[in-house]
Write a structure and sequence with these properties.
This protein is mainly beta. It has helices spanning 31-36, 107-111, and strands at residues 9-14, 19-28, 48-52, 57-59, 67-72, 78-85, 90-92, 99-104, 119-122. A seven-stranded mixed β-sheet has the order 6-5-8-3-2-1-9. Strands 4-7 form a two-stranded antiparallel ribbon.
Length: 125
């Protein structure tokens, strides 16, 4: 398993379910890249996503579309999933949540991703 912090672009797979959440996700690990995140964008491309490290809580201020927020611990285990988070909203990762993967709305439901699932970060497919 590749560490997402060692890759600029990566794919994300739900190990237990064998489903792919993203084929070309990007990393937001600096203060500014996490703060900027998806703000002012028109959406997240299918297959895309952004991993916000050290982000146990997020906002969707200045975002004009819905997206899925998958919170996880340091080992990639999902702690909480927020489906189709709406603009101008807040969300918290729950107990143990340390990082957030933001995906196009509907991806978490289509892949069956729920709290307790293990995510794996790999070279882009």
């Amino acid at each position: 398993m590749a560490s997402p912090t060692a890759l600029k672009r990566f794919s994300v797979r739900n190990a237990g379910r064998g489903t792919v959440l993203a084929t070309r996700a990007s990393l937001a690990s600096s203060y500014w890249s996490r703060l900027w995140g998806l703000m002012f964008r028109r959406g997240v491309a299918e297959g895309g996503g952004i991993l916000l490290t050290k982000s146990a809580s997020i906002h969707s201020f200045f975002m004009f579309f819905r997206f899925d927020a998958v919170f996880m611990d340091n080992d990639g285990r999902v702690t909480k999933v927020v489906h189709a988070m709406r603009p101008w909203w807040l969300a918290f990762g729950g107990k143990g949540g340390k990082h957030t993967l933001e995906l196009p709305a509907g991806v978490a439901e289509r892949t069956g991703t729920v709290a307790g699932d293990q995510l794996v970060f790999e070279e882009p497919t």
